[in-house]
Amino acid sequence: MSEYINNREYRQKVLKELILELHSGKSVEDIKPRFEELIQGISPTEISEMEQGLIMEGMPVEEIQRLCDVHAAVFKGSIEEIHRPQKPEEIPGHPVHTFRLENREIERLINEKINPNLEAFKSTGSSEKLKELNGDFNRLWEIDKHYLRKENLLFPYMEKYGITAPPKVMWGVDDEIRALIKETKVLISKYNDNPGQVANKASEAVNKVSDMIFKEENILFPMVLETLSEDEWQKIAGESDELGYCLIEPEAHWKPAKVNIEEKGQEKGDIPSNNGYIKFETGILSPEELNAMLNTLPIDISFVDKDGAVKYFSQAKERIFPRTKAIIGRQVQNCHPPASVHIVEKIIEDLKSGRKDHEDFWINMRGQFVYIRYFAVRNEKNEFLGTLEVTQNIKPIKEITGEKRLVSDQ
Question: Is the pTM of this model over 0.70?
Answer without folding.
Answer: no
